[in-house]
Fold Purine-cytosine permease family protein.
Amino acid sequence: MALYSQEEVVIEEIAGGEFEREPVPESHWKSWKSFLGMYAGEHAAGTEFVIGPLFLTTGVSALDLILGLILGNLMAVLSWRFLTAEIGTKFRYTLYFHLEKICGKRLVTFYNLANGMLFCFLAGAMITISATAVGIPFDMEMPQLTDTMPNGLTWIIIVLSIGTVISIIAARGYSTVAKAANWMSPIIVLAFIVCGIVALFQLNVNSFSDFWNIWGNGSEPFPGQIKYTFWHVFLWSWFANAAMHIGMSDLSVFRFAKKANTGWTTAAGMYVGHFIAWIAACLLYAVYLRSPEAQFFLNNGQAPPVAPGPLAYNAIGFFGIIAVILAGWTTANPTIYRAGLAFQAILPKASTFWVTILAGAIATIAGLFPAFAMRLLDFVALYGFILAPIGAVIVFEYFFGRKIGIQSFYAEKSGTNFNISVFWAWLISFGVFYFISVQFDIFLSFLTLPAWLACGVLFLIFSKYFQKPLKT
């Protein structure tokens, strides 16, 4: 036991304290409680204050929204449990080290760069959301749905301050991220529930039929938005976190789990955050749409702004401001942590702390530009579509590779730095289905699963053809 503990210390020192290039040793496995708090905090978060209202701007009906969220979130939980957690607890590698063994160092470098940058942009949207709450006491001008650039010095100072704090927390490692989520998530969840209740009173809802009639059969989409149906909501909510589950990014998280069943804890995020929180945020926005300010925008053919800070503040006062700030933190923290691990794979000699600070700096700069938050539905669909197919390579190799006779971890065992089977599988699947989306104006989330499946199948076919027998 003493020798084993000493080996763990050496491993941790080599890996910079986070085991980036080694399996996580048993002494560092964490119980399901750590993941419950993290997922509840991460997905009952600042982005929920934006996503809920954005659903209303698409004119979706109440029935399509509720059924789509129930079933879409169920599919997301199943994806986490039976794909991500299953493989994560089997090998206990980060996504980036796992891919390096399959793809080779040179190829995976391009993926890690894209992955890290997209996560930084997503974290930037969360920093933007927190900034809308911090700016209320300073009477800051809020960003509009069509804004892309910073709208003033106050906005810049607030975003930079929030980004600095979030980056430091994320840079302290997974344990700090999990602790922060556990501390903050109960407050955030309570805030969403209270906001929803207060909004119901403000909307004079006294019965279920009153609630149903708030947006009833839906409406025409707001200017610049597309009309959502059940299938839009179902597929978008399933693939909102496609990069994390079918894209395998959360291998980096579940490598710390004791058992694959820990994957069920993602339900706390999906049904507290992506169901209750989204609907509560919808109600907040429904209250705002009745205001003279919102009517002024609508009468002039413009979409009213979606600023989470003011929406929560109008419902529950300063508690709402605190909730939005904390919600942004708990989502941005693990996102920046994931981005830091991606950059760590590119710069293995750099410490985890400093590559995470780098990721936080990029996220903070992205947070200065409101477009990432104001077009969140489109951006989330795009980043999931780009990253998810690479996860199919890991999944198909794990479940089907041995059955069809291909070598697992081929790049590592053959010494290649560029696995052309992975490259062509991703390029063809991404290129073909993205072309279909653009050419025929098809909602991108409709094509995420076909692109993922195509990438996995093509990887197996190309591997069967291109892999050479290994020397024994």
